[in-house]
Design goal:
Mean pLDDT: 97
Strand content: 15-25%
Largest sheet: 7 strands, mixed
CATH class of the largest domain: Alpha Beta
Low-confidence stretches: none
Structural class: alpha/beta
Strand order of the largest sheet: 2-10-9-6-5-3-4
Number of helices: 11
Shape: globular
């Protein structure tokens, strides 16, 4: 079976070595030694200026970030991403206002943001789709003009730099997922990044039940803390990141070389980006062709994934707003298998199948 991705597992002995520290400390959560060490090592590896706070998953940071904005109002966002981005907005009592995407970059079309701003707009929450940067300069100019916060869902953006700067250093708040399917993972987990110390302090207490001290509170909070068991996995995976990215790059280059792009389109990576080779999306001429390709691949036990389908403006718990580009791309985009241990003869099988069907 070849899935769209495969979780990287470090040598078991290395994970066990980290777990031995947990057993020795008898400390399983509440920002233990391993979690604090992982925060420092991630900050060094990513070369970020922002403060970093580890969380138990990648959705909690979005919810906490939204909670800092108050109650109710509108959030400008993208319809083309994983459902967690929209569901977090709705879950926290805000109304998503969708803005269509750029047909090549697949990130939010920054030229359409300003016309969506109203007196009810609280923030802009957008996604670096497949790790491809949004037009951060334009978005932040708009936000500053209208006195809005910018939250970047950077779930796919681990290790990506734009103009020499980590994507986690953009915006007022950035979030990331460390789910098992992600480039860097802690099994399940995530992080929130924030340069402003005062805002970071608010994010911190909100992820820990609102605790100011053991017996006093400075506001409402939830439990978003990463466990030591998760941190142990992260500390075991992190040393392999350069190797993981390099192997993925080789597979991406192979797809690029041998796929027939007279029948397919690829996402355009924004200029001045050092990408992380996190996903390999291809866009077919129509949905019918995509479905035929999926069917033939599935019969060979190969399982690509329709990231991201459907376009989120069509969900039944949001008010429909027509997004022609997103709806079209979402119906035609397919992420092909991509992970370090994917053998090239299997990549050939995928490529040849697509060529035959198209």
């Amino acid at each position: 079976m070849i899935n769209v991705t495969q979780t990287f597992l470090p040598p078991l002995a290395e994970y066990e070595k980290q777990l031995q520290r947990v057993w020795k400390n008898k400390w399983l959560t509440n920002r233990g030694e391993l979690a604090l060490e992982l925060e420092k090592k991630l900050k060094d590896y990513l070369q970020i200026k922002a403060n970093i706070l580890l969380t138990t998953n990648g959705t909690i940071p979005l919810q906490i970030a939204l909670k800092t904005l108050g109650n109710g109002g509108e959030i400008i966002t993208t319809p083309f991403t994983y459902v967690a981005t929209t569901s977090a907005i709705v879950w926290e009592g805000f109304t998503p206002v969708f803005v269509d995407i750029h047909p090549e970059y697949l990130t939010i079309d920054e030229t359409k943001i300003e016309s969506a701003i109203t007196s009810k707009t609280k923030a802009i929450l957008v996604v670096h789709v497949y790790g491809n940067p949004c037009h951060a300069e334009a978005i932040e100019r708009i936000a500053k003009k209208h006195n809005l916060k910018v939250i970047y869902d950077a779930a796919h953006a681990f290790g990506v730099t734009y103009k020499g700067k980590s994507l986690f250093d953009f915006g007022d708040i950035s979030t990331c997922s460390f789910h098992a399917t992600k480039l860097f993972h802690t099994g399940e987990g995530g992080a929130v990044f924030c340069k402003d110390d005062e805002l970071f302090n608010e994010l911190y207490y909100r992820h820990n039940f609102g605790h100011k001290t053991a017996v006093s509170f400075q506001g409402v909070g939830i439990n978003g803390k990463m466990s030591e068991l998760q941190a142990a996995m992260g500390l075991s995976v992190l040393p392999y990141m350069d190797e993981i990215i390099e192997k993925r790059k080789q597979i991406v280059n192979y797809y690029d070389k041998y796929l027939d792009f007279s029948q397919l389109k690829r996402q355009k990576i924004r200029e001045h980006t050092q990408w992380n080779y996190n996903y390999y999306p291809v866009i077919f001429k129509d949905e019918e062709t995509l479905l035929r390709v999926v069917d033939v691949l599935n019969k060979q036990a190969i399982y690509p994934r329709r990231y991201f389908y459907p376009s989120l403006n069509t969900l039944d718990y949001v008010e429909y707003q027509e997004m022609p580009v997103s709806e079209s791309i979402a119906s035609r985009v397919l992420c092909l298998p991509l992970y370090p241990d994917l053998e090239f003869y299997n990549v050939d099988k995928i490529i040849n199948t697509i060529k035959k069907v198209c």
